[in-house]
Write a structure and sequence with these properties.
By secondary structure, this protein is of the alpha/beta class. It has a single domain, classed as Vaccinia Virus protein VP39 (Rossmann fold, 3-Layer(aba) Sandwich), CATH 3.40.50. 35% of the residues lie in helices and 29% in strands. It has eleven helices and twelve strands. Strands 1, 4, 5, 6, 7, 8, 9, 10, 11 and 12 form a ten-stranded mixed sheet that branches. Strand 9 and strand 10 form a beta hairpin. The longest helix has 15 residues. The termini are far apart.
C-alpha cells in the first residue's frame, strides 16, 4: 500500500515530503497577527521573481506547466475546474469571462490554455497584489489575459460572471470579509480550488515552504468545512459539486475544490 501511495505522488513532491518533512503547516495560533509575526510573509520579492521566471518559461514554450513556481513536465489538470469552465462557456453561448482572484501571473490560465484556445471569446482577468499586476501587465497581458489592481476595476472593464478562488482564501487575514465584498457583485458561479479544510473549527497556521521551492513562510487558514459551506448557502448559493484538490499529499489536512451556483439564476420549471 505504501508503494502504491508513493507511486501516485510526483517525484518532486515525494522528495519534498521525505527530505523536508519539517515543512508544511506548523503551529497553532490564536490570531493572524501572531502567525504573521512568526513568518516572513507572502509579499516578498523572491517569491514574485521565482514565479515570474517559471511562468515566462511556460508562456514562451520552454516549460509545460507551473504550479506554485514549480515546473512540471506534464500538465496536472483540475478536471472538475476545467469541466465547469467548459459548462459555463457552453451556457453563455461560447463566451467565457473569468475573474481569477489571486491568480498569480496566470498559473490557472496557462494550465488550461490548450482548451481555452479552442474558445472564440475568452476574458481571463486576474486581480492580484500590486507587484504581480505591474509585472503581469508588462510581461504577460494580451488580448485575453488581463491584470487588475482591484475587483471594481476588473468588473467595470470586463464584467466577468464566474469567480475563481484557487489557493488564495487561506492566505487572507479576513477571508469572509473579503467574500462579503466580492459577492455583492452576484456572480453566477463561484469555483473554489486548492483550499485546505478540516472538520473542526477554523485553524490558523504558518505554512513553511521547502527551500527547494523558495524560502518563505506565511500565515494560512485551515477552514472549518461545514462553516465554509454554510456561509455560501446563506449567500443563496448551492453546492453544485465538490472535488479533491491537486495539493494535499503529505499534509494532515485535505485540500478540496467546490463549485457553487447562485440559486437566483436557476430556472425553475
Amino acid at each position: 500500500m505504501k508503494k502504491f501511495i508513493n507511486s501516485l505522488i510526483p517525484p518532486i513532491l515525494l522528495n519534498i515530503i521525505k527530505k523536508e518533512s519539517k515543512y508544511g503547516f506548523k503551529g497553532d495560533y490564536h490570531t493572524w497577527q501572531e502567525a504573521e509575526d512568526d513568518s516572513t510573509g507572502y509579499d516578498t520579492d523572491n517569491i514574485l521573481q521565482i514565479v515570474r521566471s517559471s511562468l515566462l518559461k511556460v508562456k514562451n514554450g520552454k516549460a509545460v506547466y507551473e504550479r506554485d513556481s514549480v515546473i512540471f513536465d506534464k500538465i496536472q489538470y483540475s478536471w472538475p475546474l476545467l469541466a465547469n469552465l467548459m459548462f459555463c462557456c457552453a451556457k453563455w453561448g461560447g463566451v467565457l469571462k473569468v475573474l481569477d482572484f489571486g491568480g498569480s501571473l496566470g498559473s490557472t490560465y496557462y494550465q488550461n490554455k490548450k482548451f481555452l484556445d479552442r474558445i472564440d471569446t475568452v476574458s481571463w482577468n486576474i486581480v492580484e497584489q500590486k507587484k504581480f499586476v505591474s509585472i503581469g501587465k508588462k510581461e504577460f497581458e494580451d488580448e485575453r489575459l488581463k491584470f487588475f489592481f482591484t475587483v471594481d476595476e476588473c468588473l467595470k472593464k470586463e464584467n466577468p460572471n464566474i469567480l475563481l478562488l484557487s489557493s488564495v482564501l487561506q492566505y487572507i487575514e479576513k477571508p469572509y470579509e473579503l467574500l462579503n465584498s466580492i459577492l455583492k457583485n452576484q456572480f453566477e458561479y463561484i469555483v473554489i480550488d486548492r483550499t485546505p479544510f478540516t472538520k473542526n473549527c477554523d485553524k490558523i497556521k504558518v505554512q513553511i515552504v521547502p527551500p527547494s521551492i523558495y524560502e518563505a513562510s506565511y500565515p494560512s487558514m485551515i477552514f472549518d468545512e461545514d462553516k465554509f459551506i454554510k456561509y455560501f448557502l446563506n449567500k443563496n448559493y448551492k453546492v453544485l459539486e465538490d472535488f479533491k484538490g491537486l495539493d494535499g499529499k503529505g499534509f494532515e489536512y485535505k485540500f478540496k475544490g467546490m463549485i457553487f451556483e447562485k440559486v437566483d439564476f436557476l430556472k425553475i420549471n
